[in-house]
Automatic annotation (TrEMBL):
InterPro entries: Chaperonin_GroES, Chaperonin_GroES_sf, Chaprnonin_Cpn10_CS, GroES-like_sf, MOB_kinase_act_fam, MOB_kinase_act_sf
UniProt organism field: Willisornis vidua (Xingu scale-backed antbird)
Gene: MOB4
Family: Belongs to the GroES chaperonin family.
CDD domains assigned to the protein according to its UniProt record, in alphabetical order: cpn10 (cd00320)
Physiological role: Co-chaperonin implicated in mitochondrial protein import and macromolecular assembly. Together with Hsp60, facilitates the correct folding of imported proteins. May also prevent misfolding and promote the refolding and proper assembly of unfolded polypeptides generated under stress conditions in the mitochondrial matrix. The functional units of these chaperonins consist of heptameric rings of the large subunit Hsp60, which function as a back-to-back double ring.
Stated name of the protein: 10 kDa heat shock protein, mitochondrial
Entry keyword set: Chaperone
Domain of life: Eukaryota
């Protein structure tokens, strides 16, 4: 932490000052993680917040996060600030309507995750009028980003397979052939999202069945597999028979039971 420097630097309005978490360089087993496998760290700790922005009715709307909380950073943006030789980043806490149009959906998803990663229903609920194809696409981009954090912890003989699987999913989502725009997506390209989901899920299942402690620790911190499972169930992107990680066993059983009765 930058100590007394924060007392001299107070964010204005709805701005949030964060300190990015350091990348893990060694696994719990003592294995060195190559720099190219560390990935970009998107987790940070809130170190200072503004008083909040003034809403349309004139009332101050407090910032949605508190000092000391762990948050997930957007992939892009933020203003870099150096305090006592350490790098910090200043971010706005914006409404969906105020966000940059091209990256608004991604920013909106990440803001909801930062506010409360355990509130999965809120994270998966799209803004009014949001195109469903773009909504699903941006969520899958976000899952790939967050899975990097889990992948670097899985230092085992299957690490190359894990990285290859994740890189393959990311490459498809970044393909200019299928996804040339992040504002509008063709139906034929939306049909590719199921394949991406199946690739991503292999990493969850590998971690659950072969690295259970690492999986549990990461899941308790991020609720990532919970969110992914609810996501694919909500949009029918994967068969329930393929959801072998019993992370939401009760919901899956109830859903299957409801279909049987119908």
């Amino acid at each position: 932490m930058a100590g007394k420097a924060f007392r001299k630097f107070l964010p204005l309005f709805d701005r949030v000052l964060v300190e990015r978490c350091a990348a893990e360089t060694v696994t719990k087993g003592g294995i060195m993680i190559p720099e190219k496998s560390q990935g970009k760290v998107l987790q940070a700790t809130v170190v200072a917040v503004g008083s909040g922005a003034r809403g349309k009715n004139g009332e101050i709307q407090p910032v949605s996060v508190k000092v000391g909380e762990k948050v997930l950073l957007p992939e892009y943006g933020g203003t870099k600030i150096v305090l006592e030789d350490k790098d910090f980043y200043n971010w706005p806490d914006e409404s969906f309507e105020e966000m940059d149009s091209t990256l608004a959906v991604q920013q909106y998803i990440q803001q909801n995750i930062r506010a409360d990663c355990s509130n999965i229903d809120k994270i998966l609920e799209p803004p009014e009028g949001q195109d469903e194809g773009v909504w699903k696409y941006e969520h899958l981009r976000q899952f790939c980003l967050e899975l990097n954090g889990l992948a670097v912890k899985l230092q085992c003989p299957a690490i190359d397979y894990t990285r290859h699987t994740l890189d393959g999913a990311a490459c498809l989502l970044n393909s200019n052939k299928y996804f040339p725009s992040r504002v509008s997506i063709k139906e034929s390209s939306v049909a590719k999202l199921g394949s991406v989901c199946r690739r991503i899920y292999r990493i969850f299942s590998h971690a659950y069945f072969h690295h259970r402690q690492i999986f549990d620790d990461y899941e308790n911190e991020t609720f990532l597999c919970h969110r992914f499972t609810k996501f694919v169930m909500k949009y029918n992107l994967m068969s329930k028979d393929n959801l072998i990680v019993p992370i939401l066993e009760e919901e899956v059983q109830n859903s299957v039971s409801g279909e049987s009765e119908a």
